[in-house]
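Hi all, long-time lurker, first post. I run a small reading group and we've been trying to get comfortable going from sequence to structure in the token notation. Rather than ask abstract questions, I figured I'd post a concrete chain and ask someone more experienced to write out its structure so we can walk through it together at our next meeting. Sequence below, copied exactly:
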Amino acid sequence: MIDLDDDADELLRLGSATLYESSGSDCFLDAAFRPAWAGAEIVGRALPLSAQAGDNLALHHGIGEAGDGDVLVVDGGGAPYGYWGEVMAVAAQSRGIRGLVIDGGVRDTEQLSRLRFPAFSTSISIRGTIKQWPGTVGLPVTLRGRVVRRGDVVVADRDGVAILPYERYAEILEAARARAAKEEAHMERLRAGELTLDLYGFRSLGSPISDSNQPVR
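-- Answer (accepted) --
Happy to help. Here is the structure in token form:
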């Protein structure tokens, strides 16, 4: 099992975008997943759950199954219900759960902010849920085309959500470190006035049509 305690701060500094770009794969979640409150950030190990639309019983089971360092990653079918709120966040924090990512809705966003419990969802909704189907806990889920497995590394920030395959985690982290160092070197050249067109060799891709290309009459 990956221990993320030593890497958490670095992963957040690198950011979801750099980690995704460095992975060489489509390990990002759909842009519909947004933080429920400003400043929310998550680093943790994925515990996938599937829930029936409008039914949050699986999430209660997930809280019971999860341990310290886990992130509940929930396929709620994108249904705009309030699957998660203050009560569940308090219960989750007591077990060391690091956050929630759900294709569905959450509520009590002000309370979640005060608790500093990070939640990323595809909607905010006060609509209530039922508790009938226990769902699945720990089995892979697919969130809008992205497969998430137990133990995958979740990094979520204001830019989006990256899901790093656990078997490639060390490789991706090293690639992200290298990418960040290279970008900082590029920043120095840009601060000195160099154009991105020259820095990245984009001039060879062609020039736009503009009035400067037209003959003077």
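A couple of things your group might point at:
The domain at 8-173 is CATH 3.50.30.40 (Glucose Oxidase; domain 1).
The beta strands are 34-35, 42-50, 70-84, 99-106, 119-124, 136-137, 141-143, 146-148, 153-157, 160-164.
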